[in-house]
Amino acid sequence: MIKIYTSPSCSSCRKAKKWFDDHKIPYESKNIFGPDFTDEDIKEVIAKSENGTDDILSTRSKIVVENNINFDDMTISQLIAFVRKNPSVLKRPIIVDDHRIQVGYNEEEIGTFIPLAYHFAKSGCSADECEKYDNCEYRLSQLPVCDNK
Q1: Residue 100: how many CB atoms within 10 A of its CB?
Q2: Which of 27, 65, 97, 136 is the most exposed place for a label (fewest CB within 10 A)?
Q3: What per-residue confidence (pLDDT) applies to 51?
Q4: 20-24, 27-31, 58-62, 107-111: lowest mean pLDDT where?
Q5: Which has the closest alpha carbon to 28: 53, 60, 38, 57?
Q6: Residues 115-131: tens digit of each pLDDT
Q7: In sequence order, which ranges of 23-87 are alpha helices (DSSP H)?
Q8: Strands of the 27-31 sheet, one edge to the other
Q9: Domains in the chain with CATH codes
């Protein structure tokens, strides 16, 4: 399942969610300021980040600059606690699936981020061709064969 970590006032987050909605690709949206944003979510984002904290944390954030925070000096537990207390240090949106991460919204990159789902949305079942499109198990699970046609 694709997850999009967002904040309510983030225009790039709204664009990312709209892109997935327009392409009828299911996702779970998690507000980084909400109660459903967990330590496990933070661990997942850190683990999938290719360049560590550089990809996901804003070193220009007010709290980071004012307190001269160096993320490289923190343990994973300290980093998770810091992000939980200061979620605004996360860059947004953060889009993850089972294997990948994308930080920020870029319409060209988002298509390569999830190629199977993207190509399905572009060439697979469509609402015009399939009366069960909105509840299509193939579309929802991204199985290789659609039995609703």
Answers
A1: 13
A2: 65
A3: 85
A4: 107-111
A5: 38
A6: 555 555 555 556 666 66
A7: 39-48, 53-56, 62-66, 76-85
A8: 27-31, 2-6, 94-96, 101-103
A9: 2-113 (3.40.30.10)
